[in-house]
Amino acid sequence: MALSPRVPELGALELLLAVARLGSVGRAAAELGVSQPTASARIKGMERQIGVPLLERSPRGSRPTEAGRLVVEWAGHVVEAAQALDAGIDALRERRDAKLRVVASLTVAEYLMPGWLLALAEASPGTAVTLRTANSAEVAGHVLAGDADLGFVEGPSTPPGLAGAVVAADRLVVVVAPGHPWARRRAPLTGPELAATPLVLRESGSGTREVLEMALAPYGGTVRPRLELASSTALKAAAMTGAGPVCLSELAVMEELAVRRLVAVPLAEGLDLRRPLRAVWPAGQRPSGPARELLGLTRRTPRAQRPPRAERVERVERVERVERVERAERA
Known about the structure:
The structure is a single chain. This protein has 331 residues and is of the alpha/beta class. 49% of the residues lie in helices and 18% in strands. It has helices spanning 10-22, 25-32, 36-50, 66-97, 106-111, 113-123, 136-144, 191-196, 207-216, 232-240, 250-258, 289-298, 308-330, and strands at 55-58, 61-64, 99-104, 128-133, 150-154, 162-176, 200-202, 227-229, 246-249, 263-264, 274-282. Strands 3, 4, 5, 6, 9, 10 and 11 form a 7-stranded mixed beta sheet that branches. A two-stranded antiparallel ribbon has the order 1-2. A two-stranded parallel ribbon has the order 7-8. A hairpin with a 2-residue loop joins strand 1 and strand 2.
């Protein structure tokens, strides 16, 4: 049943309760943060709406009339119920806002997300995070379907239907086992050579595969892969067992390069395997709550800054190349 037009709004009832408790329209107005003329006008409007006087006014202040005391009693129950409703809504919003669903590409999930989530846990310890991993194409599908609040993808562009922001930078490297002939080569690997070589690659739909295929498109594209594997761990294992050259994220092989379990093959300058890493969300929407907070934390990572360990690896490789040249010249 619809409420009668004689029922006052909650704000007016709160004002009436404050006047009854404080004995003054002025003091009630000050407590509720409104001017006295506004409070007086609201009380008079409520009296006209109900059809009976509610306050007796005198130089000493204001007090409820007999009818006003009844309305004050009824209003108390209404305002208490409204306060309980307000508290319940706040609790629901806090419960919703304290949950964050993230889906990320494997490289981001394995090598960047742990640090970001640790920072989020320190900033908002009450936030419960669910993290799923998928390739970049699948990440985009989950975000578009509403299965995740925030996604992270690898690749040269933002997937259709999504908005995004670059949060980090990465590059692909070609690695081989120390016993592979390419581990001893001095000449940089050219685009045509790489395009003509069967590689061990990630599956179609991954950001790693997309970047490599775009880089090799001017040279005829990639030939049929020697193997297709679904994770960086599997790719590294294949490379270390001598399955063939592997192309994967530099972030994934820093440790293996540092201890020489794998060797990075030098690439020709024109072969650009750099790629941005993006946070994505549905176009036309803005991340809110924990999603916005996590996005802010990721943006504090300098985009062009490469991991310090990778820089040390590069320096080691440069020294080793010089030593190999010197040994060859002495021979």
